[in-house]
Amino acid sequence: MGRDFTDAGHAVALVLGMLASTRFGRPAAWTPVRHLLLVVAAAFGYLMLANTRSPLITAAGLGVVGALVAVVPVGRRLLGRSARRPVGAECAVTPGIA
Q1: Does pTM surpass 0.90?
Q2: How far apart are the first and last CA of the chain?
Q3: What angle do CA 93, 30, 35 make, to 5 degrees?
Q4: Which of 19, 17, 6, 18 has its CA nearest to residue 48?
Q5: CA–CA separation, 42 vs 32, rounded Å?
Q6: What is the sign of the dihedral through the CA atoms of 25, 80, 34 and 53?
Q7: pLDDT digits over 11-69, tens only?
Q8: Residue 7: CB partners within 8 Å, gap ≥ 6?
Q9: What whole-number distance in Å separates Cα of residue 42 and Cα of residue 36?
Q10: How far apart are CA 70 and CA 59, in angstroms?
């Protein structure tokens, strides 16, 4: 059993953890501490699975591509929300109160 078994085991554990997390409901609000923990966990996982030069470069490149692909639908959704938001007197819940 070589290094590949360890990589495969960590990848399976990651997928199982993500599947199990779908059973817990909506997450709480993101705090600065949670953002920091996410960064540390992502860096650890990245270095655990990609420990030589070619996987490091490949994973970094695919990560950037994945982030850019994810920005498109999220950006459209955010732009759609801001475009539908009424402005001025139309915002009032009670007529005549702005």
Answers
A1: no
A2: 70
A3: 145
A4: 6
A5: 15
A6: positive
A7: 888 889 889 988 887 777 888 898 898 889 888 877 776 777 887 788 788 888 888 88
A8: 48, 49
A9: 10
A10: 16
